[in-house]
């Protein structure tokens, strides 16, 4: 049976990651988009994976993230029933020592980083595809006046080593601005005493009202993780990270302006200087930040162009359709698992 909106009796079983923070919001967005695309979708945690699959006989099982041991056991138990399975990985390439032991259990593997495609194919996966995360655009995106912004510059995220180094390198500049830094481990900054009044320390992956902060900031800094970072990094073969993080889509989806460091795949998603702005060093960042802070029209034009691109190409509705189309166009062979 082909995957299409009109396919009778086509049903999808969507398996949640089991993570308690951040992912539940993404999973709800994906579930809603799947429901719009297919209609008949059931979302479960790993505890109910096997019994639900045997009950509803899904046409397709989609596993999100998939690190939970109970998910692996469930997928392996279900192999004998020949269900079509897909794994959507979300943290590549930082956990490839883990994911290399997961991917062969699935008919289709979707990774949010192109740097891992050949790695998984070399392991023996026939169907590996690039599928980044996306954003759930707000229903209303107001255009703020300069007086309505609460912050000049903000950053929301975990204090990985490369991020600490960058913020330390521009600390003397940030202290002169209305700056906000949110996340865990920012008390590790060498410049913490200088910036502590501008820092909101939160637990790992707990970001209260991040979308609101994006919209209320004139400049949102986006710094990708380094593959050299040892925090939450299990990537012994040091596969290079090529693709942009999910924060890129999320900031753009609010109509907010961002300045990001450069990943090789960035231009596949946004045009630098037109839909997003980039920086290559602390000096480059400061020079551009100064220019954009006094040029709100240019800043807002780029932000609006980034929003338009996001609404057209980078929503979960779009991602789900891409996933289903790929599976439809690459049917599982009878001799595959």
In short:
This protein is an alpha/beta fold and 337 residues long. It is 37% helix and 15% strand. It is built from 14 helices and 12 strands.
The CATH topology of the largest domain is given as Rossmann fold
Strand percentage = 5-15%
Number of helices: 14
CATH architecture of the largest domain, by name, is 3-Layer(aba) Sandwich
Level of helix content? Answer: 25-40%
- Can you list the strand order of the major beta sheet? 2-1-3-4-5-6
What kind of sheet is the major sheet? 6 strands, parallel
Gross morphology is globular
User: How do the helices and strands follow one another from N- to C-terminus?
Assistant: EHEHEHEHEHEEHHEHEHEHEHEHHH
Q: SS-based structural class?
A: alpha/beta
- Calculate Rg over CA atoms: 21 Å
Number of strands: 12
Could you say how many structural domains there are in total?
Answer: 2
CATH class of the largest domain: Alpha Beta
Describe this structure in words.
Pfam families: Glyco_trans_1_2. InterPro entries: YkvP/CgeB_Glyco_trans-like. It comes from Bacillus cereus. This protein has helices at about 25-40, 50-55, 70-80, 95-100, 115-125, 160-170, 170-175, 190-195, 210-215, 245-255, 265-270, 280-295, 295-315, 315-330; strands spanning about 10-15, 40-45, 60-65, 85-90, 110, 130, 150-155, 180-185, 200, 215-220, 260, 275-280. A 6-stranded parallel beta sheet has the order 2-1-3-4-5-6, sandwiched between helices. Strands 9-8-7-10-11-12 form a 6-stranded parallel beta sheet, with helices on both faces. The chain is of the alpha/beta class and about 325 residues long. Residues about 1-5 have low confidence and may be disordered. The longest helix is centred in the C-terminal third of the chain and has 18 residues, at about 295-315. The protein contains 14 helices and 12 strands. The protein is globular. The chain folds into 2 domains: about 10-135 and about 315-330, Rossmann fold, CATH 3.40.50.2000; about 145-315, Rossmann fold (3-Layer(aba) Sandwich). Helix 1 (about 25-40) packs across helix 14 (about 315-330) and helix 2 packs parallel to helix 3.
């Amino acid at each position: 049976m082909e995957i299409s909106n009109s396919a009778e009796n086509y049903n999808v079983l969507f398996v949640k990651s089991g993570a308690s923070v951040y992912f539940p919001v993404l999973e709800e967005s994906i579930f809603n988009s799947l429901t719009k695309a297919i209609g008949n979708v059931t979302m479960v945690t790993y505890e109910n994976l096997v019994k639900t699959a045997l009950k509803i006989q899904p046409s397709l099982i989609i596993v999100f993230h998939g690190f939970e041991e109970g998910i692996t056991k469930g997928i392996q138990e279900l192999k004998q029933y020949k269900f079509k399975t897909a794994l959507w990985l979300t943290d590549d390439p930082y956990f490839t020592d883990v994911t290399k032991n997961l991917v062969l259990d699935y008919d289709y593997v979707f990774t949010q980083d192109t740097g891992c495609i050949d790695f998984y194919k070399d392991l023996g996966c026939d169907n590996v595809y690039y599928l980044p995360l996306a954003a759930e655009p707000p229903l209303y995106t107001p255009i703020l006046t300069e007086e309505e912004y609460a912050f000049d510059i903000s950053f929301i995220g975990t204090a990985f080593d490369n991020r600490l180094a960058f913020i330390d390198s521009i600390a003397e500049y940030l202290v002169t601005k209305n700056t906000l830094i949110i996340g865990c481990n920012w008390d590790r900054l060498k410049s913490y005493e200088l910036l502590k009044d501008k820092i909101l320390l939160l637990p790992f992956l707990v970001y209260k009202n991040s979308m609101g902060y994006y919209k209320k900031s004139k400049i949102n800094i986006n710094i990708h993780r380094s593959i050299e970072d040892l925090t939450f990094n299990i990537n012994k073969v040091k596969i290079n990270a090529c693709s942009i993080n999910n924060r890129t889509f999320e900031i753009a989806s609010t109509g907010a302006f961002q300045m990001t460091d450069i990943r090789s795949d960035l231009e596949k998603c946004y045009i630098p200087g037109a839909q997003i702005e980039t920086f290559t060093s602390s000096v480059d960042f400061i020079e551009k930040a100064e220019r954009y802070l006094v040029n709100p029209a240019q800043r807002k034009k780029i932000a609006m162009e980034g929003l338009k691109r996001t609404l057209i190409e980078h929503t979960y509705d779009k991602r789900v359709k891409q996933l289903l189309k790929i599976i439809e166009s690459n049917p599982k062979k009878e001799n595959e698992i």
